[in-house]
Amino acid sequence: MLRPSVLGLAVLLSMPALWAAFAAGSLGITTALTRFLIAVPVAALMLTLLRKVTAGYARQALRRELAAAAELRDRQAAELG
Questions:
Q1: pLDDT tens per residue, range 12-43
Q2: Does the global pTM surpass 0.85?
Q3: Number of structural domains, the chain?
Q4: Phi and psi angles of residue 25, each rounded to the nearest 5 degrees, phi first
Q5: Residue 81: strand, helix, or coil
Q6: Distance CA 40, CA 7 (A)
């Protein structure tokens, strides 16, 4: 199943061809739709790479939050005990 973000990016990538086909009429509809279909896997690959890059930053932030929570818990335990 395709994510809406993939289809949206594919539309943006193929927008010049879609505009030329549907609004200006200077390009064939078949050609414009072919360019859109080529843009779909390209957009999926681009967004997959972006998700993989940003996932590392999310993991780092989670580790920092867990470490800060553990430090706070240890500090509170030391104050009570």
A1: 999 999 999 999 999 999 999 999 999 999 99
A2: no
A3: 1
A4: 75, 15
A5: coil
A6: 6
